[in-house]
Please model this.
Amino acid sequence: MKYCILIMDGAAGWPLKEYGGKTTLELAYTPNLDALVCEGMLGMTNNVPLGMEPSSAVACMSLLGYNPEGYYKGRAAIEAISMGVPIKRGEAVFRCNLVALRGGRMWSYSSGHIENEESYQLVAALNEHLGSDTVQFYPGVGYRHLLKIKGHAETTHAECTPPHDISGKVVAKYLPRGRGSRLLNRLMQDSQKVLKQQPVNYQRVARGQIPATSIWLFWGSGPIPKVPSFNEMYKLNAVLTSGVDLLCGLGMMMGMEILDIAGVTDNMNNNFAGQAEGALDALSVHDLAVIHVEAPDESGHAGNAAEKIAAIEKIDSEIVSRIRRYKGELCLLVIPDHPTPVEICTHVAEAVPFLMWGPGFGAGTAQRFTESEARSTEVLISKGHDIMGCFVGGYGYATS
Model:
């Protein structure tokens, strides 16, 4: 038996008044997903334990079968694993977004979704002007980068707010605060002077694009402890494809092989078909393949319902259609990690629909892959980290 997990990041959401009270999953045309729903088991699960942040780090760790209450120690260090950035005792690492501030407000948490080529030039400039023996910037994907600080482990105690949680809001009250925050605020302030002088930003403004005016530091953490491998936990050899460092870092932490597929990225320019084909090809030598697609979440953060619908439809037409044509015995789990309602442009810690399809998963009465249909089945997995054990046949649950 082969297994495939399709993570539609942030695809779930809330009913939209301007669209007749329907969610983006309900509005999307998804004939392939709906056909599988008619043959498989639909239900609901909550991937975010009570009191934990509704981030993709927590939610994806959970749905991959690891209890985040025991294993989650911070997000930035997980991304550092993917980027090959070592973190030693006494060092701290932070997610470092390139953001755009205007009139004291968060104009864009992604600097208009700046691409790698330009953002790397800005990171290089930050290292030139602000880097030192204790401060080092590392380029990631698009607007997402990392900052490592040596000798100031106290900075991980600072209270920080993700920039995508405060789109359009006055930023002053959301700056890092509390113990360890002074250095973070100084670096953020100093970055504005550096970025203001960069040719890349002049060029972006001239083209009518949003410039990167500041860094924004959050999700600080220290070294990540080792966790049992996915193979140890579930007796399956796994592979993963994603366009973001977080998921690649999670996969590496769990001992999964990471696929290098051309054109896989974090937005609507993603190579959807390539992701599906690469993951399914990998099943010739692996037991389980994880396909993580970031595009719906990015559209949700942008408050763009039409684009989020289009992203869901792309997943259905270019990924799910190929999974349906897989020759051989296959079990499929389709699941968002968390909802990203376009009304609020950020994540919420609410239950999401899931679909299990393949041998052993009998058909119910549901007709579509939507939140309302999933709720109507009254199938509920109350703890998200239990879903993996249910999916792969009860090899045991990750509970610590």
